## 1
Amino acid sequence: MNKEFLYEMLDTMSVSGSEIGLQKKVIAEMKPYADEIRTDYTGNVVCVLNPDADFKVLLTGHIDEIGLVVTHIRGDGLLKVAKAGGIHATAYPGHQVMIHHGNERIPGVVILNEAMTKGDIKDKDLYIDIGAKDGEDARKYVEE
């Protein structure tokens, strides 16, 4: 694998439930090298080199990534989110994120519900701030 393809894979959105685009890229990249390429109903892509060999080596990786899904745009422009994949909500506040809207990417930062001052942080307490002045402004960039 070349470095450019690695960067392309890292840059391709592949949030849990939306992995097909990256799977297709992996298949296209590996086609010249693999003797067989197998897929299954769960989205696995298996590239096989020399399938009849007695000695086999397995290299594996995860193609999906954890993420957040915008579920609501508040009047103040903050984006309410729900989890996609297993997230640890306590690790998210302050993280920079990229919202994918078609081919556009909108940068944002994860913040906590303003009422959340202490205690166990849940994914329902997370919002994304994209710098919108209000809900109408946010809807120019993001859909609910």
## 2
Amino acid sequence: MSVSLSKGQRVDLTKGRPSLKNIFVGLGWDINHYDGESDFDWDVNAFDSGSDFDLDASVFMTKENGKVGSDGDFLFYGNLAHSSKSVVHMGDNRTGEGEGDDEVINIKLDKVPDDYESIAVTVTIYDAESRLQNFGMVENAYVRVVDADTGEEL
């Protein structure tokens, strides 16, 4: 089942699933290749920086006040695992090439320390401003959440 979320929207994955213990978040994307035709008034080729599109999945583990407690609560390609090992980022894919999930974050919900209230997942484009890149130049982008024990996509 697919759910479309708006920027900043929240979803409670454990509501109605109290036994949910292990999930993974998968991020995937493809580059929106320019085919030579455009309805735009500007030159699309002017924005082809020649750089790969590097989408990055990140996690903020927040406390009751809605903020991370320390730098270690922000998980990304430069900080792959929380000290509790409840959240582990499996590494950075810098191109989006290949089939399936390009980046994966494993989360053991029953291992998240009790003083954390939420786990927020974000997606950004690495160095987007200097590369003149935006999400409109990406196609087939998705973020999916899967029950790692059953394989069910949530």
